[in-house]
Fold each of these.
Amino acid sequence: MTKLGKQTWVYDNPVYIQASATAVGPLEGEGPLKDYFDHVYDDLHCNEDNWELAERALMVDSVHRCLQKAGVDESNVDLLLAGDLLNQNVTGNYVARQLGIPLLGMFGACSTSMETLATASALVSSGYAKQAMVAVSSHNATAERQFRYPTEYGGQKPQTATFTVTGSGAALVSTKPSEIRVEAATIGKVLDYKLKDPFDLGSAMAPAAWSTIKTHLEDMGRVPSDYDLIATGDLSAVGTPILRDLLKQDGLDVSEVHNDCGLMVYHSDQPVFSGGSGCACSAVVTYSKLIEELKNGTYNRILVVATGALMSPTMVQQKETIPGIAHAVVLTKEESS
Amino acid sequence: MSDQRIDENNFEKISKTYQPKPNYVLNCFKAFVVGGLICVLGELLSEMYIHWFNFSDEEAGNPTVATLILLSSLATGFGVYDKLGQFAGAGSAVPVTGFANSVTSAALEYKSEGYVLGVATNLFKLAGSVIVFGVVSAYVLGMIRYIWSLIF
C-alpha cells in the first residue's frame, strides 16, 4: 500500500468489490433509484416491533443479500466493519452478534459508509483479512427520535433540513478480481466552520467535503474531469452549491461531474426538504446505482465522498458548533475481469 | 457566488446566502388560518356543550379543552398531526392541540422502552419546559398581583 501526501492511500495490492446489496424503506422505494435496490420494504417498521429493530432488519437484509450475491458463506468472511448513527453503534453491534463475524464497529456519522469501505480495503490489501464485509445503516425514525423529536411531533422544520434515508447498504471486498476495483481512498480531516444549526447540516459539511476532494486531487495528481462522477454523500440542495463554489475558488470546477447522493436518492417533489441524509444515503446510492453504472460501463472511474456531520444533540445544546468530516473512495471499472 | 473568498471566518455569514429564504408572509398566513380554524372548532365545541349539555359558559371550558386534546391525540396517533404541523407551523403548535401532540407523540415514541421508564419518564420530555415556565410565571405574576392588592 502506498501513501500519497498525508491523507491518501493507494491500494497497490488490488482490492475488489465482490458484491454489494441494498435494502431500503418505502419512501426510498418510490424514488428514482427504485429499480436498483435489492429489496424495498413497503412498511417503515419493516414488520418489526420498534424502530431500532426495523433498522437492524435492514442491515441484516443487506448483509445477507450481499453474501448471497457473492456466493460466499458468512463463515468465510474474516471481518465485518459496520456502523450506523445510533448511540453505541447498536445496529452494527447487534447485527454482528447475529452473524458471528469478527466486528470492527465504526462511527463517522454519515461518512461511515466510505470510512468502512476505505478501512476494509486497507486491511484486505495488506493481508489482515481475506474477505471483509462492510455495512452501514440509518433509519428515518431512529434518527428522528435520537437526534430530533418524537416521530409524530408536529414541529415545523425549515427547508434547509435534510431527511434521513431509511436503508442499509453492504459490500464484500476481497483480493479476488471482479468488475469493480477499489483503487484509492482519502481520509478526511474534521473541519468546523462554526455553524450551529442542526437543521442545516449540508452547509456544515460542505467545508469538509471541499477539503477532502481538494486534498485527494492534489495527492493523486488528478483533476475533476479524471472522474466520470464525483458523488458527495448528503450535502443536499443547500450544501451542494457551497461545495462547488468552495472548489471553484481553488480553480477546481466540478460542476460537470459532481452530484450529491442526497439529491439522487429522492425525486425533487418528494417531501424530503433539501434532500436525503444519513449513513444509508451514500451507501444505498453507491452500492446500487453507482456500482451498476460502473459495471455497465456508463462510468469508468468515480469518486464517492461520504460526508458526515459529527452532530450530537448534547453538544448542540451546550452551544458547540457542528464539525464535519468527509472520506473519499475511488472505484474503477476493471476491464480485464 | 460572492466576490469575497469564502473562508473559515466569513463562512457563517456567506453560507446564509445559499439558504432558501423562508416565506414569512405565507407562513404567517397559514399559521393564522389553521390556528384560527382550531379556535373556531373549540368555539363550536364550547357552544355545543352549553346548548346541548346544559353547561354554563364557564363550565364549558373544561370539556371543550378535553375534547380538543382527545382529537389532537387521535390525529397524532393516526400520523396526521405532524403533517399538519409542518404545514401550519405555529398555527398548530400554539393552541392546546399542539401541547397535546407533544405529549402524545412522546408517549407513542417511548412505548418501546416500557410503560414506566419509557412512556411515564418521557411523557413530558417536550411539554415539561412549558409546564415549568407556566407554573413559574403564574407564581411570579400571582405574587405581583397579591403585592399590588396589598399596596392599593
Amino acid sequence: MTVAPKREAYDVVVIGAGPAGLAAAATSAEAGLSTLLLDENIGPGGQVFRAIASTPVTERNQLGADYWVGADLVQTLRASNAEIIQRATVWSLDRNLEIAVSIGGASAFARAQRVILATGALERPFPIPGWTLPGVMTAGAAQTMLKSSALVPDGRTVIAGQGPLLWLLAAQILRLGGRIDRILDTTERGNYFAALPNGFAFLTSPYFAKGLSMMREVRAKVQVVCGVTELAAAGDGQLASVSYVAGGKRETIPADLLLLHQGVVPNVNLAMAAGIEHRWDDLQLCWSPVLDASGNSSVAGIAIAGDGAGIGGATAAVVRGRIAARAAVEALAPADAAKLAPMTVLRAEQAKAERGRTFLDTLFRPAPQFRIPTGDTIVCRCEEVTAKDILDAVAIGATGPNQLKAYRRTGMGPCQGRLCGLTVTELMAQARGKTPQEIGYYRLRAPVKPITLAELAAVPKNEADVKAVARG
Amino acid sequence: MFRRSEQDKRPQVEIFVDGVAITARQGDTVSAALLASGCDARRSTAVSGAPRLPYCMMGVCFDCLVTIDGVGNRQGCLVPVAEGMQIEIQKGKREIGK
C-alpha cells in the first residue's frame, strides 16, 4: 500500500497522530487550511490512544474512559478535509519546511507553510543490569500489545518503576485477566516530601481521584513492594529472575517477564534534526524544546504540540494541538480563525489540563541510580556499550556525547540515541562535574529513521541536484 | 509470556516463521504475533550476537528487527501481519541482498 501525499504543498503538515496531532490536524482543516497528517503507525491514536480505531478490547471499561476520548478525536478528524496517511515515516524536516517521508518503502516529499510536530513522547531509558535480556520490556510495550491485540502477560510477571502509567497498565492487565506477581515501586521516599508544596494543585486536579482509585484497585490484587532502591534482571539468554533491594533487604524472585517504567520524555529526534533549540529541563530531567506560548519553536514556521513540547499528558496534548493549529490559522488565514475556539478559552483549558503536573514530576522524579548506571550495565543497547566503557572514554578525553561516538559508537546504531541519549548525557555530566546543559546531546541529523540506500537513490532528481554532485 | 484475551474476536491470519505456520490475528503487528505465538522469536544482535526480543513495541528501540518477505531489518512492531507472510528471525546483521 503506497499512497504518497496528493499535493506537493500544504498550508499545514502535522507529524504524528496522537492526541496533539489529531486535534491540531482537525483544527487546521476545520478552519479551511489544506492539511496533511503523517503518522508512522498502522492506525491513528499515537501511544495513549493506540489502536483506538481497531482495538479488539470491546469491554470499554477495561481500558477506561480516558482512552475512548481518542475515538471522538479520530471521528472529528475523519469528518474533516484533512488528508491522513498512516504508516508514513517522516525522515527529514528542514528549515525550509520541506518534509521527506517514507511510505511503503518509497520516499515522497511535501512542502508546508506551517509544520506542527506532534511526535509525542517515549519511555525514559531504564538502564539496569540485564535490561537487554529477552523478557524485559517497557510497560508501554505491554500496554501497546494490550490495546492493539488484547494480549496480556500470563507468565510470572514483575512490574517495576514508578509513575501514573505503571498503575494504569497494572489495572488494565488485571481487568483483562492477565497475571502480575509483584510490583516493585522505585519512587524515592524523599520525593513525597519534596512534592508536598505542590500538593494542593494536585489534590484539585483530575489526576488525584483517578490515580488513587487505580492504585487501590491494583493493591487489592497484587503484592506491592515500596521503596525499591536497587533493581537487576538476570538470566542466560532469557530473563529468569529479578532481584531488588527494599528497606535494605535484598530479594530475588523468579520471573518470565519484567516490565519497566520510569516516566516518559519528549521524543526529540525529528525536532532536533530540524535545528530546533532545546534546553535541559532540570525538573523533568530531559531535553525540552524552547517554545513560545503557542508552541512556536526557534525555527520559523515549525511549532511543537503535545508531549514533545514537554511532558503534560494527553488532555494537555489535545489543547496544545488546538493552540498550535489556531496560531497557524491566525498566521496564514486570520479571517478564518473566527471559526475556531478563542485563544483565551484554549489557554484556560491548557492551564486546567496542566494542573497538578509539577506535583507528579516531583513525586515521580526517577532516582539517580536508575538513570545513571555503573559498571557492566549496558547504556547503548544498539552498539552494546556499557557504563564502564563510557567512563573509560571520558577518562582518556571524551568531552561530550558527540565525541563519544568516535570512541565507542554510542548512539550510532539504528535507534539513533533514543534509548541511550539521556543516559549518556547524564553519565558524562556526572563524570565530568558539569551540568547536562553543558554536556549537551547528540547532534541529530536526517534521516531520523533508517532508510535504505536504494530508497534514497530512487528519489526523483532534477538537473540541479545531479549537477550539485557531478564532477567536472 | 503473553496470551490472548477471550474477547478478541478478530479473524485469524496464517503467517510463517522460519517456514513454520503460526496463527495470528488481523491487526496484529508482526512483533505482537511473534510474542503471542510462544515460539522462540529471539533475534541475535549484529554486534555481539546477544539474544533479544522486542523492548518498546512503539518503533523506537529496533530490538524487533526481523526479515519480512525477504526484506531484512524491518521493524516488526510497525508492520501489520498479512496472510501468508514469511517471517525469518534475523540472526546477526542484515544480509546483503535481503
Amino acid sequence: MEILAIIAVFSPLLGFLGAGTFGEKLGDRFSQIVTCGLMGLSTLLSIYLFYKLALGERTLSIELFTWIQVEFLQVSWGLQLDSLSLVMMGVVTIVSLMVHLYSVGYMDGDQGVPRFMGYLSLFTFFMLILVTAPNLLQMFFGWEGVGLCSYLLIGFWYNRESANEAAIKAFLVNRIGDIGFVLGILTIFVMFGTLDFTAFFDILEQHQTDSFRFFGVEFHALTLASMLLFIGAMGKSAQIGLHTWLPDAMEGPTPVSALIHAATMVTAGVFMVVRLSPLLEYAPFAREFITLTGGVTALMAATIACVQNDIKRIIAYSTCSQLGYMFMAAGLSGYSASMFHLTTHAFFKALLFLGAGSVIHAMSDEQDIQKMGGIWKFIPVTYTVMWIGSLALMGFPFFSGFYSKDIILEVDWASGLPIGKLAFYFGLTAAILTAFYSVRLILLTFHGKSRADDTVMGHIHESPLVMLLPLVVLAIGSVFAGYSLDKLFVGEETTFWGNAIFVLPQDEVISKAHHVLPWVHWSPAIMGFIGMIIGYVFYERLKELPAQLSRSFKGIYLFLYHKWYFDELYDKLFVNSSLKLGKVLWEEGDQEIIDGLGPNGFSTVAYVGGGLLSRLQTGYIYHYAFGMFIGIVFIVGWYFWL
Amino acid sequence: MASLPLLSMTIFLPLLGAFAIFFNWGQSGLVQAKNARWVALWTSLVTLGLTVILWYNFNADSSSFQFEDKFQWIPIMNVGYHVGIDGISLPFVLLSALLIPICILSSWSSIQERVSEYMIAFLVMETLLIGMFSALDLILFYLFFEGVLIPMFLIIGIWGGPDRVYAAFKFFLYTLLGSVLMLLAILYIYFEVGGSDIPLALTTPFDPAVQIWLWLAFFASFAVKIPMWPFHTWLPDAHVEAPTAGSVILAGILLKMGGYGFIRFSLPMFPEASAYFAPMVFTLSIIAIVYTSLVALAQTDMKKLIAYSSIAHMGFVTLGIFSVDAQGIQGAITQMVSHGLISAALFLCVGVVYDRVHSREIADYGGLVYIMPRYATVFMLFILASVGLPGTSGFIGEFLVLLGTYQVSTWAATLAASGMVLGAAYALWLYRRVVFGALIHPNLKLLTDLSWREKLIFSPLVAGVLIFGIYPIPLLRVMEAAVANVIDQYNLALDPEDGILDRNKALDMARQDDKEAI
C-alpha cells in the first residue's frame, strides 16, 4: 500500500521530468503520451487507495526522510493519507487527467506542447504533495509549488504582455497571503514546538487559553495562529481583498484555468482550513471571520460576474464566489459541507471552463460573449455540457451543486449564530445572482442572432473527440457527484471523515442542518429559479432592459464593471508608490545622502582640504618662520597653562 | 591522514599554483595564457578535492577546532601560525573551494588580457579566503582578512568595466576604513590577553564597558563587508564594474566574511555588547531588507539589481545571527551558503548574456527564451531560489532565520517576511523583462544557447541549490555542534548572576527598540 501511494504521488513528477528532458527531442506526441500515461496511473492508484483506505476507514502515514532538523525543529517529508487527503487526491487526479487529455486536443499545434504538458504534470505533483502533507511546512512546499506552476502557466504565452503581467500579479498577491501563512507556521512552532499536524492537534486542548505576544499586544494564541494561516488561504483561494489575481489569471490557456484556477489550486485554501479544523475549533473568532470573509466574497464576486463580458472572467468570478460559499460553511464548523461543495464544484467548474474553452476554440479565439450568439446548433455537445455545468452551478434540483449548496446554506441557518444567519442571506442573494449570470452567459453565447463576423462563423466547428471525451466525463460527474456522495460526505450517520475532521460537540452543525425547516431546505433552489427567470427575461424577452438599466444606474453599473475598483486602488496605493519610493530611496537616499556624505563627501573634503593646505607652501622663508614662531608660542603657552 | 597537515595543505596549495604560473612567464603570450588557465583550473580542483576530504573526515559531533596546525611564527611577539576549522568555518571553506574553479572556468574565454596575472590573483585570493576562514590567530586572521582586499582590488581595477577605478577605490577605502578600527581592537585584545591566539581570546571574559568599544570596532569592519545598510553603497558600484568572476567571488564569498566574523568573534567574545547592540542590528537589518528591495525595483542595470538583492539577503543573515538562537544562527549560515551559490549563479547568468551582447542594461534584452531556452530554464531556477521558493536552499535559510527572529521580535520577523513579496517582485520582474516578452532587439536573434562549458559551470550550482533545498541535513549537521557551542557561551556570559544584561532584558529591549524604530 505504501509503495502504491508513493507511486501515485510521484508519477506526475516523472511525467514532468520525462516531458521536460526528452520532450523537445522526441516530439509533442511523446510528451503527451508520457504525461497522460503517468497521470492515468496516478489517477487509477488514487481511486484504488480511496476505495481501500477511505471507504475502509483506514489511514496511512508514510515517512520518507528528514527535511530539516535544527534543535527542536524537526520536519520530515511524508505522506499522510486519511479521508480528507484521499478525497482531494481523487478530485485532483481525476480533473487533472481530464485536463491532460483535453489539452492534447486544445494545445495541438502550439509551439510549447512538451512544456505545457510538463507544467500540468508538475502542478499535479505539487498539488498531491500539498494535500498529503503531514506537516505545515510540507504543505507550504506544495502550496508554493502550485503557485509557481500557476505563475508559469498563466504566463505560458510569454510573448503576450498581459499574460506576463497577470502571471507576476498572481505570484505577488499570493505571496502577500503567504506572509500570513509563514507567520502562522512560526506561531504554531513557537507555541507547540512541532509542525506535524497530528502532534500539535494532540496537545491543542492544553493550550486553548494560551496567549501570545504579537506586535507587543497579547493575543489569544490559537486565534492569532488561525487568523495568520487564514490570510494565506485568502490569497490562494482568492477571497476578498486578495482576489484580484484570479480574474487576470484567465490570461493562461483555458485548460489551465479549468485545472488550477477552478478545480484544484484555488481550493487549497479551503482544504487548509478544513485540515486545520482542530485548531479552528478552539478559535471561534477566527471562524467567524472566515465565515464573514466567505459570505462577502460570495456576494461581491457574484455581483461582478453579472456585468462582465469575457466568458472566462465570468466563470472566474463565479469560482471566487463559490469558494466564498465553501469558507462560509467551514467557518461555522460545517467542514464536511465545504469539502462536499469543493468536490462537486471541481467537477462542474472544470466542466464549465473546458466547455468555455471549446467555445473559444470554435469561435477562433474570441472570448467576448457580446460577440457570440446563435451558435448552439453548430456545437451541440459543447452546448449541452455547458447547460449541465450551469445547472449544477445554479443548484438546480438533483444536479450536483444542488446538494452541496443546499447543505452549506442549511449549515448557515442551523448554526444559530448571527453570523450564520447573515451568511445565509448573503448566500441566498448570491444564489440568485449565480443563476442570473449563468443564464446570461448561456443565452448571450449560444442563443439569439449571431454577433460574430462571417469569417468566424464560417470556421465554427465542434471540438475533436479527445476534447469532448473529458467534457462528457466531467458532465457525468456534474450530474451525479452530488447525489452519490451526499450520504457519504454529509449524511447524518456518516463516519467517513473519521479523525480527519474534528468538531467540538457544541459546534456540531451537520446533523442540525438535516433538521431545518423545509423553506430553508428549498430556498436555494427557489432562489436559483428566480435568478434564472430574471436572466431569461433580461436576455431573451426584454433585450433592451439590460442596456437601459445600465444607463439609468450608471454609477452602480460602472462600479461593478470595474470590479469594485480594487485594481485601481491597489495600483495607486501599493504598486506605483513602491516603484516611486524605490526610485527616491535610490537616487536621494543612496546617491545623494549616503554617498554624498560618505565616500564622495570624504573625497571632496580631502581634495579641497589638500588644495587649501597646499597653499600654505608659499616658498617664502618668512612665512615658514612665522609659522614656526606661532608654533613655539603655542607649545610654550600649553606648557605653562597646564 | 591524521599526520598530514591537511588543512595547511589546502590553504597553501593555491598559492603554490600561483607560483607555478608566475614562473611560467616568458613563453609566448598564447601558450602562457593557456598554461595559466589549465594550471589554475587543476590547482583549484585539487584544492576542492582536499576540502571534500576535510569534510569527509570532519567530526560533526565535536564543537572544538579540528585539523589544527600550530607553531610559533613570530616568537618575539608571541604570534603563532594557528589554523583549524570547526562547523562554522567548514561550510565557508567548502564554498570558497567550490566557487574558485567556477570563476576560473567562467573566465576561460572572456578574459584575454593579462591572463596569467588574472589567474594568479584568483589563486592568491583562494589561499587568503580559506586561510581567513580557518585562521585561529588574530594577527593571522587580520592578515588574511585584509589581504583578500588586494587581489579583489586588482581584479576590479584591472579587468573591470569603464568606471573601474572609481569603484575599486570606493571598495578599497570603505573596507579599509572599517578594518583599521578592527586592527585597533585586535591590538587591544592582544595586549589584554597577552597573545593573539583566538581560542584563548574566546575564553577570556572582557569587561562589558570595554566590550562595547571592541564590538563597535569589529562591527565597523564586518558591517561594511556584509554589507549592512547604510554602509552598502560600495557594493553596487563594485559589482557593476567587476568582471563576471569578480562579482561571483565578491557576492559568493567576500560578503560572507562579515557574517562569519560576527559569529566567530562578536557573539562569543563580546556577548554583553552583542546583546546590547542587537536591537540596533535588528533595526538596520530590517531597513536593509525593505529599503534595498525597494531600490532594487528601480534598477535598470542587471548587475546593480542583483547587487541590491544581495544586500537584502544579507539583511536576513544579520537578523539570524543576532537572534542568537539555534535556528537563527544555523539559518544565517545556511542563508550565507545558499546565497553564495545563488548570487554566484545569478551573476554568472548575467555574465552569459554580457559575454554575448556586452550590455547590462535590462532594456537591451527581452525575449531570450525564444533563442536560449536552456539559459532561460537555468536563470529561472536561480531566480526562484533567490525568491526563496521552498525546495531550494534559499527557503531553508530564510525560514530558519525567520523562525529564530520571530522568537525575539515579531515585528522584525513580520517586516522581514514582507521582503518575501518585494524580493519576488524585483526578481520576477527582472526575469520577465530579460527573458520573456517579445524579441524586439534584432541583435539578440543571433545568440547561441549555453555552451557545454557554461552548462558545466552551472551544474554544480544547480545541484547544490536543489539538494540543500530538499535535503539540507548534511549542511545543518556540520554546523550544529559549533553553533550550539557559541550560543551556550553567549548565554553563559549573559547569565543574570554575573552578566550586566539578562538575555530576556535584552530581548525586551530589542522589542522596545523595534517599536521605536517603526
